[in-house]
């Protein structure tokens, strides 16, 4: 039979890694929202809906042109027939479109 050996124990420091809160954090959405739109500015929404063309490139150009002439400022405009994933930090924005195309407008 082997002799038992007693090893000194190291006291725990209580320095365990804290787990991050993994609960989904939803953004605070201000403005008009529906199932298909997310807008902080209804004027942008109206410009998007008025200028949707069959070709996303033409929609983008028409929306951007009217945004500059009617609202001034600098905007990023993207239109796509596919869903787009993005992160934006803008207080003046709108995402809207029709059954075949969605346009995203953010003031920069």
From TrEMBL:
InterPro entries: Ground-like_dom (IPR007284). Residues 36-106 form the Ground-like domain. This is Ground-like domain-containing protein. The lineage of its organism: Eukaryota, Metazoa, Ecdysozoa, Nematoda, Chromadorea.
